[in-house]
Structure prediction request, 583 residues.
Amino acid sequence: MLTTKKLTIARGGRVLCRDLDLAISAGQSWLILGENGCGKSTLLATLAAWLAPESGTLHLQGKPLADWPANQRARRLAWLPQGDENPFPLSVLEKTLTGRHPYLGRWEWESAADLALAQAQLARLDLAGLAQRDLATLSGGERRRVALATVLTQQADLLLLDEPLSQLDLRHQQQALTVLREEKAAGRTLLVVGHDPNHAAQFASHVLLMFGDGRWLAGPVDAMLTSENLSALYHYPVRALSAGGSTVFVPEAACS
Amino acid sequence: MRHRPLSVARLLAVLAGLLALLALAVTASLCLGSTPFRPWQLWQAGSDAELARDIVLNLRLPRTLAAIAVGGLLALAGALQQVLLRNPLADPYVLGTSGGASVGALTAMLLGGGALAVNLGAGCGALAVTLLVFLLAGRDHSASQARLLLTGVALAAFCGALTSLLLSIAPDGLLRGMVFWLLGDLAGARWHWALPLLGALLLLVWPFARDLNLLSMGQQPAHALGAQTQRLQWLLYFVSAAATALAVTTAGMIGFVGLIVPHALRLVLGQDQRLLLPACALTGGTVLLAADVASRIVLAPQQLPVGVITALVGVPVFLWLLQQRAR
Prediction:
């Protein structure tokens, strides 16, 4: 689905990730972890063809990413960036409908099927009642869910999600995680940036750890998520606790 | 109502309504003035009707068409600059685009250039200032976008100073023409280029209206949805500068139409550019026509420059909008 070879990304002269070799096959779901400013969002923006890599190659479904025509790429690869400031009035449903843009020709209009699809995605994220509301009147977490619904409406094979769970309350986080599991079950490939290693158990098959100084580790969840790795990643002692047959990671101070 | 997604039926209905408003304004513009006529007088026989037809067809009709063209161009330029800079307060007058056009045009006049040179000068001036604003502040993605407005205001002031400089060194023979050109006047304005080009520019950008919807949500979301953000920005930049330059060479400096028309329409109709762009082109004409009728009858038989009316009404509205945004 997506392969990187010797991919190096840098920001402001600082190398964030060196010689990254990833082979993400269809149906896998990855959780990307790392400290603030370690390059997670920069990596995602690079994989979305928004930023050019410092060096290395990047292939989407076997074809160099830069060679894809923009709308063809958008049908295969959806990207949820972090910021979503909108200076103009826009309703929740209008915003969600923009996810159909890659499928519409220059003279085409959104069809009833497009509308139904957008409304279905809103309903999955508990937003059906907000469809007519102006985005500016929503809370940060609600706007985040609208952005996720827009990405789902795009119906791409590969989803690059930059902190889709940030600002969400406990119930809506679980709801969004359920949606991620459903997307995975539907055969989609996921790359999700997050801050909670415990979310891996809920949807991820693989984990990418980014140390922010160019080093990285990638592999299956069980091999990657150890208290040693996480302690090194966050520069803070993390302990693994067994609870009901599953492993939970907690920072040191919280369990003493 | 504005929060329902736009349908083709609603698009056509709204445009038909705005067209009817424009037709009303045209009727008013043809019939009102220092000598008012009833519309049906024009179709009567006799010498009175002959004179009426003469005034209406040779004096008021060209002026009316020029007002429609200039108002439409300014509103279209404003709407496009608002998307380009992602700021609902962008406007060719506020951001110095009109100022750049007048500096270019006055320079051409001062150098003794003909009509073509003046048009070219205005076009280059408008392009140069838009490019400067775009380069200096176009990447300001902060919520308030203070840098953008300040850059535009500073450039507008700079163009104002350059304009004063050009006027002060101009020989007396040219001065009167230059001042009248600056004041913004529709009397004797030529619509023959402006009106078809308004249509052409609108037809050029309308096919990209859905892409512009994406761009107004931000460059990254637009890119993610397959819009070619760089190309779109250049398109917006060229079309808005060309529209401003055309408006300024046709009728001089007329402020605030480009700000208030898109802003008000967005509140009523929503942000969908597929409707907003043609609606702006139509309503800009209606608004400027209304201002022009007012400029003819407020102090009749004396006529005021229409730029004075739009600024007198526009500045308070602009300040009010700024207040609303601050909240």
Q: What stands out?
A: Chain B is about 75% helix and 0% strand. Chain B touches chain A at residues 2-8, 82, 86-88, 141, 143, 145, 207, 210-211, 213-214, 216-218, 220-221, 223-228, 266-267, 270-272 (CB under 8 Å). The two ends of chain B are 24 Å apart (CA to CA).
